[in-house]
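Throughout our pipeline, every protein is held as a single compact record rather than as scattered files. The remainder of this section carries one protein's record, kept here as part of the documentation.

===
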Amino acid sequence: MRWEFGRRSTNVEDRRGSRMSAPVVGGGIGAIVLSVIVALLGGDPSVIWEQGQSSSDGPYSEAPQTQGSAADDRLAEFVSVVLADTEDTWHGLFRQEGTTYVEPKLVLFSGAVESACGYAKAAMGPFYCPADQKLYIDLSFYEDLKTRHQAPGDFAQAYVIAHEVGHHVQNLMGISDKVHAMQRQTDRAQANELSVRLELQADCFAGIWAHHANRSRQVLEAGDVEEALNAASSIGDDRLQHQARGYVTPESFTHGSSAQRVRWFKQGIQTGDPGQCNTFAAATP
């Protein structure tokens, strides 16, 4: 991916210098709410409960500061360029519809972070919090993407950011609020399907960014699209479930299967039209 000469975003908030100890969750309502958020984000809710059991009384505290490596600093710069590129893309697309794109902030953190959606550990993976309109990522996730999920490459890394920006776009469009309202009025199986459709639309929006970024700024190199498709496939619910427990339960999917994630990313990158990303109107997601 050709990114080195791209514009750097001014919306990156670097919190990598401080680590926060866990708050007391205590197994109460706070833990339940955070567990639900983690599950909706496709993470493992048990990290919340394990953390609550191991934490001590008292407020948040900062652990000793750590120095970022040269490799991490380069990744941070890369993230800033990709974020800037999504800003340019979505500003143009919103302008075409006569509306204004509000840029999200992106928070870099190490280990754990406090967001408006609650306390989160790096084990959750990258996430978007609609309450503060911020994206959160621990750069160590990219090593997981490369080694654990077998999805290396800078464009695979860019896809992850573009997907989370896709959730921000859904928030600005009012789609997220509508889906969450519908989820509160239905059973768990239907709520999971709505979550899948929401995630697949974010995949499609990631493809929209790739389409326009390449057409306007020629960012793609040979093999880049394959990197993103591999990443989408590698973090499909079916593949992750099979790796974790040896079998798959489709009714518990929250992000979509590998095939679904690939299909909708391709829909976005091939059409470049957000109107073609209506996963909620599709007979099957």
